[in-house]
Amino acid sequence: KKIAPRHQLGDVWAMLQNNSFDAEKLKSLRKSSPLGRILAAGLSNSRHGRDVMKDSIEEAANSVINELERYLPVLGTIGSLAPQLGLLGTVFGMIKMFTEIMLAGSNGNTSILAGGIAEALICTASGLMVAIPAIAVVLAGSAGCGTVIGGRAVVAEPQIGQAVQWGPCRPAGG
Q1: Which of 54, 55, 86, 103 has the fewest Cβ atoms within 10 angstroms?
Q2: Sequential DSSP letters for 113-153
């Protein structure tokens, strides 16, 4: 909702049709959301023709996508390392368990085994509980940013292009 507000494109289109789009609204649109930045880039360059407008929309969309994806590598690293740290904890738990068995002798005390196994499983589960959401966010983010922003920008370009066909799309008073 914050990246690509559902009704933003329709609101801009309505203002263009009503010729109520001015420089202040362009400035507000640019600051409103990532999609607003993309739309504002197209609108501010529409008087230069369709190709320039389309290039400015693509450039703005690429910039927005890069900005939205900037933290995905960090989450990917966390998602990759968390299971390894969980495995390391598992190994330490197993080492502790076997050390305690060795020190206690071979009297078959299962509580020593249970404590070590529980510690090992807690470490494994902890690593997976960190890794799974981190990897899910990375996968959803890397697929979603370009799709949401790119898809809305693709929808916006022909509609803004229609405004260019009416003549130069200059904000009123600008």
Answers
A1: 103
A2: HHHHHHHHHHHHHHHHHHHHHHHHHHHHHHHHHHHHHHHHH
Cβ 45 vs Cβ 58: under 8 Å: no
For residue 29, CA distances in Å to 53, 54, 55, 99 come to 16, 18, 19, 65
> Model confidence over 27-79: pLDDT tens digits?
888 888 888 888 888 888 778 888 888 888 888 888 888 887 787 788 888 88
Which residue, 112, 131, 109, is CA-closest to 120? 112
Question: Which of 12, 7, 23 minimizes the C-alpha distance to 162?
Answer: 12
* 3 state DSSP class of 22: strand
Q: Which residues of 74-105 are buried (b: 16+ CB within 10 A; e: fewer)?
A: ebbebbeebbeebeebbeebeeebeeebeeee
Spatial neighbors of 39 by CB under 8 A, at least 6 apart, are: 8, 9, 12, 29, 57, 156, 160
